[in-house]
Amino acid sequence: MYTSIPKGLTDLTLAIEKGTNAVVTSKYNPFYYHGALPQFYLWVLFISGLLLFAYYIPTIENAYFSENLVNAWTSVNYITNVLPMGAVIRGIHRYAGDAMVLTIVLHALRVWITDRYRQYRWIQWVTGVALLFLVLFIGQTGYYLVWDERSLILTRMTVSALGALPFVGEGLQKWFLNGTAITNLTLSNFLFIHIGLSFSLLFGLWMHYVRMTRPVITPPPAINYMLTAVLLVFVFLYPITSGKMADLNSMPTSFEIDWFFLWPYAMMASMNLGMYWVLILGGAIAFTCVPLPQLYKASHPIESAEVVLNKCTGCSLCSQDCPYSAIEMVPAPAGSRFKLLATVKAYRCSGCGVCVGACAFDAIDLPNLLDTDVKAKIKALAEAK
Ligand code: HEM
Ligand code: SF4
Ligand code: SF4
User: Fold this and answer.
1) Which ligand is nearest to the CA of 40?
2) pLDDT digits (tens, 9 = 90+) for 248-258
3) Could you tell me which residues come within 8 angstroms of residue 209 by beta carbon, excluding any fewer than 6 positions away?
4) Between 3.30.450.20, 1.20.810.10, 1.10.10.10, 2.40.70.10, what CATH number should domain 7-296 receive?
5) The whole model's pTM is what?
6) If pLDDT is split at 50, 70 and 90, which confidence band does 1 have?
7) CATH number of the domain at 306-384, out of 3.30.70.3270, 3.90.550.10, 3.40.50.1820, 3.40.50.140?
């Protein structure tokens, strides 16, 4: 093992998982769906978001439709207080967002603690970090959309923070505001960013999953029902409300923090903006690079599996078992007794050796770890006991 994870931590996590198995059985153990849980909340967010979108009006001032002011804040108010089930949908959307952040963090911790993040899995790690930051940013834009006093403070703080970035700051401010000041266009931009980036998560997830043959992305229905029930408990116990409508002529200063999404604003408020960016960007880079030292420390680089051509029967068991879709079954050359032949796509192979175990004909090997050597080692270990 080339790992820097404290062994006690790994043992403790595995012991907790084993204990949970004893209570709910491994089929319903939520620890085994650590990646599927954020994915579940993403679907909930898409569905509830779509329903909210149907009634949301992304403007600050708009007396267009009637004598009454119709804008983002009043539309959110309408959803919450008038629309049947509106408050429930809004609550589900909010708490599913919080739960998604929480489960992403737990998922990242789980893959790190159980040493499933480095070497071949660096792509999952790096795309995972990008997904986490995207989710955080999308969630923050959700808070701007409500257009209450908190939205106004967050918008102003973001504009100041972007302005502190050298070279790109001014351009980013204009992009963020959709102009040089907060106007109706700003809110339509927020809505566009919120929804557009949410869809880009799907592309990020595709990259996250592309090297896995069978990623576990759906928890069993029983877990889905339980997660939905817990969400509903929060929705009814802690209903979501808006603050006062934002007034561009006022300067509100204090706001309630949602620690899942808005912690960067607590940081901004407690330090100078230069330091804030050093910590945020430095933290993001350090988090992204977690698997890097392990990539170089590995004493043997990844050696892809190799098929022993004259032994392969084309049974395709190795291809079915390979966790990374690295084995393709191709037509066997003319004159062969068999129809198919296994071929390894070296660029997808992690060198895990699962195929070696799957093959009953000793027809696939890891060049640095031959099947016969492994068997000899196991035999020696068994005899030594
Ligand atoms: C939108 C957020 C995310 C979702 C929906 C997600 C989902 C998933 C799923 C479904 C799997 C497959 C799990 C399995 O089959 O056992 C997975 C694997 C993985 N994820 Fe994520 N993930 C997210 C974010 C992250 C983050 C933030 C990290 C780390 C920084 C990360 C690191 C990994 C790694 C290293 C694996 C491979 C684990 C293995 O092969 O056992 N993911 N992810
Ligand atoms: S399991 Fe062995 S025999 Fe079967 S296709 Fe794979 S390499 Fe060939
Ligand atoms: S070693 Fe075998 S099972 Fe593992 S990734 Fe490579 S081809 Fe697939």
Assistant:
1) 1
2) 999 998 999 99
3) 215, 217
4) 1.20.810.10
5) 0.90
6) very low
7) 3.30.70.3270
